[in-house]
Amino acid sequence: MATIVIGILVATIVLATRNRGVDDAFGKYRQGIGRAILLGLEFLVAADIIRTVAVDPTFAGAGVLAIIVFIRTFLSFALELEISGRWPWQRDGRHDSHDA
Question: Which of 31, 78, 80, 86 could be joined to 90 by an S-S link, Cβ 3.0–4.6 Å?
């Protein structure tokens, strides 16, 4: 949770200190917040995995973990689509078609 809060604070500070157009600044701010949320989700998934394996290694705990990871993975994909306008497995369009 602290990762998300710190990321939002950093994105807000960057927004306040940069002089850009309103549309560009808003887009960069959204990207910064989205990236902070994505990083926070990754930390939460890792914490859930560690807790399930180290503290409560039961089949029921593993089932709950699987559901949590599925939901957070879906959220991560949706946020990535929102931030970059493409799915994580798609190329970003900056590469030429003959690049390997």
Answer: 86
